[in-house]
Amino acid sequence: MVKVLRIAVVLAPVVACGVHSPSVQSDIDTTFPSHTGQCPRGIAAIETDYQSTNVSLWSPKVEPARPSFISSGSHAPGASAAFSGDVVLPSEPPRSGKVVLIDRYPNSTITWIDTNGGNVEAQLSVATGFGSNPHDYIEVDAHRAYVSRFESNSAAGRVPFDSGGDVLIVDTDKHAIVGNIPLATSSDGQYQPRADRFVRFGRRIGIGLQRLNASFTQAENSMFVVIDPTNDAIVARIDLGLAACGVGVVSPSASVIAFACGGMITGNTAIERSGIALVDVSSNVPKLVRTIGTADMPAAMARSIGSVAFVSEEQVVITAIGSRSTPGDVIVRYHLEAKMAQVVTTSKKYFVLGGILCDTACEHICVAPNAERNVLMRWSIEDGGTLNELGEKALPSGIGLPPRSVNFF
Questions:
Q1: N or C terminus of the chain: which is more exposed, having fewer CB within 10 Å?
Q2: Taking the CA atoms of the chain, what radius of gyration do you get in angstroms?
Q3: Strand 166-171 to 223-228 pairing
Q4: SS3 for 94?
């Protein structure tokens, strides 16, 4: 059952840390085309040291457009809360054409920004009395959006919609919370839903549930939950067979969703239940068709799988995250059928290569942030899904914050 009630939310100011708002270079094009179908308007990069954040905007070909679109040091009209160092972008470009920023923990805010003017149009707290840690935002239609909340509230019942571990329903005209979709079930036991990222397929919207306990020390198999946005009802729950599967991407044919599953660290070194889960969404009844654990992958991928992107129907590009015992991250092109891998790039440090982003429909390009060298890496997607290196792009803002994530807008 989806509870519906309209509430207004008042924000408290948050102190910003150490980022100065630089002037935008006048010789850089700062306009973007209207949102047209499946082609993105551009790419946004999140640069952060996890204390402060800068957002830069780039063309779809990964050319700099706005070095500092907005930052923790900005004094933007309409923003009553400064940005923290834990800001992410929606997994899907907002159909409204806005740049939407998700300030996760502890701020728990959603901010809508006009792309060309750079004006903050609205800012909404989705905390409802606790640090709800929103993880994603997706526009359901012209008037509503969903927001996933990663944290659950152990002291719920004080204000409307304060349970957490749910999907909030937001009126995007009034920028107000109007309902929620609870994700927890009576059989969950100690495991919280840990709602992560959305993925749209056909007329439905899915979300990955990581299903971790309160201390993040144990995990159940992750779940893929399917929502019918016409009535905000859950219509399917699919066990993904692996752990910490929060992020899914749709294949070029829109028939398969691949989930990146980070797994759980056991002891000091072993990573269990990490890999890729493949869900067939070609029919009205989605079903898990295969899991590929890192134990069945080449040795270079024996890490925590951080992200996955399709470069063809049979091939994906995977970012695998290292650790103290396995230094360095690695980006690998992997053939799902042949189970063959080719290393694309590596790093010396771990947790420095962000998730790779690929456009197979329009510009045929992949881009990934490299926080070790403070650059965006680029590749063209050639016939057969092979990648051709295009060279790195240095960050033009001059702020010095390392790039951590990229996404289309």
A1: N
A2: 20
A3: unpaired
A4: coil
pLDDT at 116: 86
d(CA 177, CA 186): 25
- Based on the number of CB atoms within 10 Å of its own CB, is 252 exposed (0-12), middle (13-18) or buried (19 or more)? middle
Tokens 């990222």 correspond to 197
**313-355, pLDDT tens digit by residue?**
999 999 999 988 888 999 999 999 999 999 999 999 999 999 9
**b or e along 147-183 (b: 16 or more beta carbons within 10 Å of the residue's beta carbon)?**
bbbbbbbeeeeeebbbbbbbbbbbebeebebbbbbbb
Residue 75 tokens read as 């004094």
Look-up: residue for tokens 């992997």? 334
Nearest to 277 by CA among 286, 285, 269: 286
**What is the average pLDDT across 100-120?**
94
For residue 305, give the nearest of 325, 287, 278, 332 by alpha carbon: 332
Q: How high does pLDDT run on average in the chain?
A: 90
Alpha carbons 23 and 18: distance in angstroms, whole number: 16
| Whole-number Å distance between alpha carbons of 224 and 237 | 6
Tell whether the model's pLDDT for residue 220 goes beyond 80. Answer: yes
pLDDT of 19 above 50: no
Q: For residues 14 and 81, give the distance between their C-alpha atoms in angstroms, rounded to a whole number.
A: 5
Structure token pair of residue 256: 């398969």
DSSP 39: B
Please give the residue that has the higher pLDDT: either 305 or 325.
Answer: 305
Look at residues 268, 345, 275 and name the one whose alpha carbon lies nearest to residue 303.
Answer: 275
Q: Could you tell me the sign of the dihedral formed by the alpha carbons of 275, 385, 58, 376, in that order?
A: positive
Token duo for residue 215? 């201390």
